[in-house]
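Readers outside the structure-tokenisation community will struggle with the description of the input data as it stands. Showing the layout once, in full, would remove most of the difficulty. For illustration, here is how one protein appears when written out as sequence plus structure tokens:
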Amino acid sequence: MVAVEQQFVTLNEIRRAARANLSPEVWDYASGGAETETSLRRNRRAMSNYVFVPRVLRDVSHIDTTTTFLGMPLALPIMIAPMGSMFLLHPDGDLALARAAGQMGTIYWLSTMTRWLPEEVAAAATGPLIFQLYWRGDHAWAEALLRRVEAAGFRGIALTVDTAAYGRRERDIEKRYDPRGQGSRLWQGFPPPLQGDARMASLTWDDVDWLKRTTRLPLIVKGIQSVEDARLCVEHGVDCVYISNHGGRQLDYAPAPIELVAEVAEAVAGRAEVVVDGGFQRGTDVLKALALGARAVCIGKAAAWGLAAAGAEGAARVLELLHLELRIAMANTGQTSVREVGPWLVRRACACE
């Protein structure tokens, strides 16, 4: 058997292998976006709006990619974003992704939309975990879930706030394919009117305050897409502002997350950490986000493709290749530590470029 390091030497090879392994329905579910998929395309295209300002003759013989997130050490500033229904891509799903993240010295974010219970993922994990909360029940349900997640050893709670209504993902709709809730064991048993998306549509900043009072874990708000809401996060004591448009899967014509990083980081002004996802598929993408003010980047689709290509080893290989690309980009721009990069490293590209 060929080792995964020899089988996959580029990220594009992993993507092609994932597509070959998946049915058309599952591939489109994992890789598609909302309606015209403009947000999905902009997430990637917006990366080209920034170019580097390389420096030379700076002794980059030693590159340090270590950093921290909410006090937790990271070997690289790349984490695996929460994604639902990962059992569709590989039998080991979230268990494999948690193992891959731990193997590479980073964090796995577990979605509420999982086939495995938090305790099961925690038992399989070899690194820190954060729990992404889709809030579907009342306060009693939420508190019971929080206590389970805390007891299982999770290190943070990420409230998702960009799913007031489920996006129209037309690739799925045209195939009459709806994987929502398949195999999820945390969403079952809600009486009306809490069934479906009603609770998530009713969320307000009061619920953020309740979470802050109720859990002892750091609180992350995931799905921020405006500077104004980033400021509100800080006012409500949120520990981390997570910029995301849900991978382009919720709102068509949403802003590209990379273009919000600098403004959000300036507005937050160090009072909360900033992370971002949405279209990050290269080491150069990661370095741009760090230069603009993000503490770290979360990857979704790229990690999912690694999972579909070769399970935990495939997901770890994605992180390994991104890490390699990041180190090369740092060396060729004259940077020796991810903790020292800043806005001077990038500039907006001219329209002619």
